[in-house]
Amino acid sequence: MMPIWSSRRGSAAGNCLYHMPLPPVVVLLVTGFLLAFHSIQASPVALDVLTLSLKFYEAQQSGSIASLNSFTWKNSSHLTDGYSSSGVTSDYYPGVDLSGGFYENGGHVKVSLTTAAVASLLALNGLAYGDNSGFSDQLSAIRRHVGWAAAYLDKCFYAPDKFVAQIGDLYTDDRYWGRPERQSSGGDEGSDSWRPVYTIDTAEGRGADVLSQAAAALASYATLLTKAGDASGDATHYRDRAMALWSVAKELEGVYVIPEGNITLLSRSYRDDQAWAAAWLCRYQIESGFSPTTEDYCASAESYWYEMTSLRGSQLYVTADTMHLAVAALLRDTMGRSDAYLILNETLLAEFNTALDAAFRWWTSAGDTACSCADVGLCKTPGGFMVLQEHGSAHFTTNMAMLALLTARTQPGLGAANQLSNADKFARRCWAHDQVSYLLGDNSGNGNAVKQAFVVGLGSVAGVDGSISTPKRPRHRASSCEQKSGKCYAASLDNVYELQGALVGGPKKDDSYTDSRNSFQSLVSIEYNAGFAGALAGLAEMESDMSAFGWSWDSACGDSGYHSTVLVSTGSSDSDDCSASACTDKSGSTAPCGLRRGSLSGSSLACDALYSADLDVRLALTDTGIQVTAPGYSNGAYISAGSGALSYSGLTLRSDGDLVWTLLYTSDLADAVSRTPSEWACAACSIQEYPSAKGTANGPFTLRLYLSATDAATLVVLNSKGELAVSIRVALGL
């Protein structure tokens, strides 16, 4: 069984006809630090499926197979890509080494735009979750895969005015069903060895989409290497190559036109690709401290964002052809990492969030639209899965799940007043969890006799229900033909080798799935797995938190996560006024207190400093401990620390992980019992800066209270990245 992947979706009508309380008074005293973030491990289900999904990229490797490739049935293949068998150079065979890269799908065509988009999306998630020590193996795999793509794309830029867009011919690919190492290269048109190199000549003024995506991929890899402390010089090399590609790409004004009959990817715009490239160069600039002499890439990213949105809007989904929302997510988390860009671009940051919010509203509101035989657009299947289109249905939805989890994290550089509410964060997280759970077989509401998963090899993951059906016949040449003899089998028979980790096309609108290599539902692609891996990384991060304290998705999603949160920092205050009178208005005023509540169930709770699921529970910080009380239940018992002059403290996380109480001022609270909770809570409403702190006034933190059935609880501090930084064991008393 899979206890973490629980079912919470309601069923939808309209199938096609062909298929049918906290304790009343709690005083918390800090007794010591027991658990730091980096000792917490992610839960086995999401993390193990993430490992499996990343393994799929090993099956797609072309060229000289890396020693780390774990598929024993894989061989090196297409080692002479770029050369003709006769040794004569031509437009189709330039006579340069173009081996390597990834096969785009189950065939043997290599598509640079797809490869680049996949690499940079993987890198985006590698950066987002890379500080989690529980993901070290997965992060290493991401770096390897991004690096494999980057090395190939580097080869594709074989002359200052030439870049390889595609290797292989779809007509030949359709005719040849066999293993890639048995297909020779460099032959004449019409033969099985016809593997033409389709090259962009920048003098023609087209190809901005492909070159921009390649620049983004190389810049993303340089950023990953820089974050990992690369000392080999590779980060500098790929940065320089990315800059060189970008200098060409930004001067082009058209998409690459694929030769007739070879439309592997319909690219309809290039402005989003240019914005994506500029955004990645901006991210490298900020992460590395690099100061370019010819161009401020962050200023360029802003300019290309406006250019992109003025022509096509922000769009409502993500694919390699439609990167608008990915640009918004990347820039949202990039600009906030620089004080200079944060100050200058508050309006721009709001635009990023507006674009993302609009997309999620569209996806979640469409949950009320039941899929039917009619073309109703985005809709919900009877089993609860959101389908934008049947071809590659899983791909579209997992990309949105990836973005939902990325954007539910704390936005760097902004106070809590600018963050999503807790309810909105958990709405995104729980929606993503439901969609991914469906693909892992939690789809009992679909009317089928057997639960259907859409990930090949899922049965090898510990904790997966053995009765779940998994795909056995993905449309993939190498895994469907014997390694030694080369013999291939009929589409109705299982693949000879298990294509572990591959996400297949997905369900139809009636939840049905046809497990045949002749079905479009069995298609696999490196693009499909990119967003899927990102979504799994986000879920694994959430579960690393929840599993450590006995949470389940049902409990977290049941009350939008409010049952555990007792404090949120808004960051620095615009005013020093932290008097009682400044915090008494709960009607929606944004009074200038450093700690505020946010909103819950539509009720305005601004300035009440602290919140929990029980709105009567309050919290105060003193120099002797953390005081929690529930006046509504305990008749005026507000603060148990006594009367007289008390020192109140701000809360700071130092870089060494210590929780520091910083003295702010002394206040006479002799009459504290007679004051309202909102008044005395305001006494601790200012947050002090501290040198080299993880979470301070300009980097919001969150306190979470985990209550157990015994007389103990755990107080957890999350830093500005949403990471567990400190865990404190506390004693409970009435």
Using the alpha-carbon principal axes, give the shape: globular
The largest sheet is: 7 strands, antiparallel
CATH topology of the largest domain: Glycosyltransferase
What would CATH call the class of the largest domain?
Mainly Alpha
What gap, in angstroms, lies between the N and C termini?
A: 40 Å
Structural class by SSE content: alpha+beta
CATH architectural category of the largest domain: Alpha/alpha barrel
Low-confidence stretches: 1-44, 562-734
Helical proportion, percent range: 25-40%
Q: List the strand order in the largest sheet.
A: 7-15-16-17-1-11-10
Q: Hey, roughly how much beta strand do the residues contain?
A: 5-15%
Count of β-strands: 17
EC number: 3.2.1.4
Protein name: cellulase
Organism: Gonium pectorale
GO molecular function: cellulase activity
What do you see in this structure?
With 734 residues, the protein is an alpha+beta fold. It has 2 domains: 523 residues, Glycosyltransferase, CATH 1.50.10.10; 168 residues, no CATH class. 33% of the residues lie in helices and 12% in strands. The longest helix has 23 residues. The chain starts with 25 loop residues before the first strand and ends with a strand.
Features:
single chain, 734 residues, Glycosyltransferase, 2 domains, 3-stranded antiparallel β-sheet, disordered N terminus, disordered C terminus
